[in-house]
Amino acid sequence: MKVIYVETPDGTVSVRDVQEPPLLTDYDCRVAIVYGTICAGTDGHILHDRLPWDMPYPLVLGHESVGRVLERGPKVRHLKVGDLVARVGTAAAADGSWNIGWGGFAEFGFCRDWRAMQEDGLEKSEWDAYRIHQVIPDDIPAEAGPLFITLRETLSYTQRLGIGEGTRLLIVGSGGNALAFVAHARCLGAEQIVVIGSAAREAVFRAAGATGYVNYKALSEITEKFDRVIDTVGKESSSDDILPFLADGAILGIYGLDDWEKLILRPARTTATFTIYQGGYDEPETHDQVVEGFRAGAYQREWWTGEPLFTLNTFTNALAAIERRELIKPLIRVNIAGGT
Fold this sequence. Notes:
This protein is of the alpha/beta class. The chain has 2 domains: 2-136 and 306-333, Medium-chain alcohol dehydrogenases, catalytic domain (Quinone Oxidoreductase, Chain A, domain 1), CATH 3.90.180.10; 150-277, NAD(P)-binding Rossmann-like Domain (Rossmann fold). The chain contains 9 helices and 17 strands. The strands form 3 sheets. Strands 3, 5, 6, 8, 9, 16 and 17 form a 7-stranded mixed sheet that branches. α5 (176-187) links the parallel β10 (168-172) and β11. The radius of gyration is 20 Å and the shape is globular. It starts with a strand and ends in a 7-residue tail after the last strand.
């Protein structure tokens, strides 16, 4: 099978033919991975070894992919052939020759029937990580499937942060996660949704629900105070720079990872008493809500992916489109023969 292979963290990828690993348990399904998106954050950090934890190079890239079930293991009963399943990927090489950076950019992979494992009395530690493998209904276009990963994570985070009716929200960043936070906040009834980001992306953020938009270099234009703030960038000073805009009692969530171990926060920049949110998210818990959001038109795939469709063979073109900031999340057709 063909995969996107990262030999070393120097930003270089290649398309390689590798042996498909065998399924590991009777609860596994073999899938054809049909679509994926490139995450400028996580995938970009992997390509340049910038995550705050070690990655096992060489590896197969990709964590925002969906696949169609081709074959079922003997103990699978909650998944059927033809199901479109979120967050699939290949496994590491059976001989240990390569690892995975979640392995979503591979023509074939697996998903696991975690519900059957739960029902059969297996320890939670054996199935809990596979709750991400949930079925996307047939009325949701397969091309939108890769967005479920971003949307589920950020919706869980949004709700746990306490964003709802009347919230005054400030978002730092204009990437895919920031756009998701805007769409969620609008659906949850936030009163203000102000974004600090690149001027070139104002239109799409306004379409998703932003009520205000400020260029990174024009912070002096912000006059309001906000009770919820999400930093989707995580640069050394990106949270520090917005401390003056915190209302008393505000909650600051630092979602970005760019400089996670070097973050600066200088309390003297604000007179507000505020809390730093550390509650994380649980991606699978919001799956059904994201389904309903797509059905209601709250999420438009084109906001993130645009119209170009790339393949594994044109993957470097997709990376270049990110570098030029032409696309937020390029859409990749992974397995050409895997159906839609």
